[in-house]
Amino acid sequence: MSTAGTVPTPNHRISTGTTATAVGVPLSVLAAVRRNSWIDLAASAIAIGGNAFPSFYLGVVLIWVFSVSFQWFPSMGYVSPWSDPLTGLWHLALPALTLGAWYVGLIATVTRASLLEVLSQPYMAAARARGEPGWRVVWVHGMRNVAMPLVTVIGLQLGGMLRGAVMTEVVFTLPGLGMMITSAVQTREYLVVQAGIMITALLFITVNFAVDRTYTLLDPRLRKHGR
Amino acid sequence: MDAELARPAPPPALPPIARLARTLAGAGRRLRRQHKAMAGGAIVLLFVLAAVFAPWLAPYGPTQQNFADAMQGPSWAHPMGTDSFGQDILARTLYGARSALWIGFASVALGLVAGVAVGLLAGLRGGRVEWALMRVVDGLLAFPELIMAMAFMAVLGLGMGNVILALALSFVGPFARTVRADVLQVKARPFIEAARLMGVPEREVILRHVLPNVAAPILVQAGMRISIAILLASGLSFLGLGVVPPTPDWGLMIAEGRGFVAMAPWMSGMPGLALATLLVGLNLLAEGLSDTLDPRTGGTHA
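Structure tokens for the assembled complex are given below, as produced in the milestone run.
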């Protein structure tokens, strides 16, 4: 179990991370540009809801709605998307949705707040005055400056992401790292606990390091006085 | 507080009326921002009242079993239904507010005290002490909170006291780091040097001059931590690594209900709703407070 346990966690997390970013960023850009419109309201609702519904509870609710009532998705089990892509993704849909709700909320909140700040900067007005189209002003001039705080928050919230992943795995009985540590603690297999925690810490440190490195890629001003 | 220091001084040429108008506009903005804190505070107050008066509000005992009435849907006799042991879910949810709030406040308070002590010591002493302490803190911060709390639970064993201890230990790192960073800033200010030069005793300098100046951001952080603590505590009990089963605890109730989603969705639905509402309230309160208390973030939220 201890060797087989680690595969689904990255799969699951990558699918969640990509989906969440793909949904969260455009949503919040719309929310910031059309401030106080219904899109803005919906984005804040998702943000507050995703923040408040702990993943283990959201998971149970989603199982109730989509597995029990509608019977659209399986409520548990894991099929590797590598060996059987369709069934695999079908099994990952609810877990990814569970973990993603929180992440979409987080990404949307940060993007909206920093984009609002960036939009009020003089260089945005200057870009508009030069006659650049609106989408270019927002996506090229605006998002470039939003990227920094966004990456920071994604990095800082990795702990929350891992927390959600552990809970989600247990709710949907996915055989991942979190499930492994949980059952090892329950059965007092201290060696497995140690190994699991070490792997998590290593992952945590590596991602934080990668986030630090990203800053110089995103902001040319930091490159000159690079450490 | 250091509001005057953080803000640039107003230009002196401003006529008094304009200055008054500006102050009033600022106060108005602050009041409007407090709506969030007020709404959050009302929700939290409701839960505190429910926790305090649980014995009088609850229609049954929280662990009173009645197998004849097991897994009943919401009705007049059992407004939130019953679980698989025939325990009343309303009663258990009300008592669950007690354990959630108690774990939240106690673990944050413990972690706060220890973290502030470590941060103050590291920031004020400097040198080798600081280096050693901060490396330990770095080590603590290398682990995500839940994973660290799980590790401590594995070592300490189950039970509410151990949940509080495990969470408090996992909060020491973040608190210590924030306090140290603020202490380093405050330490460099002229008034600390002035106090030292005037011969104010070290203890006095720390208590009267350093601590009040680092208090606001730490308290804001503590407020935000309480909701994280409650989330983590219920997560731990959901995983079966927290408080032990007969205790009325939301995480445990959600875990118990997970197996019965098809037959009795209220079993995990009701306590989960309570948990989510409390978390929304705490987050709103903390956000509102940080907007008002922390001059640095004061302007960003509109």
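Chain A has a mean pLDDT of 73. Residues 85-119 of chain A form the longest helix (35 residues). Further analysis is deferred to the final report.
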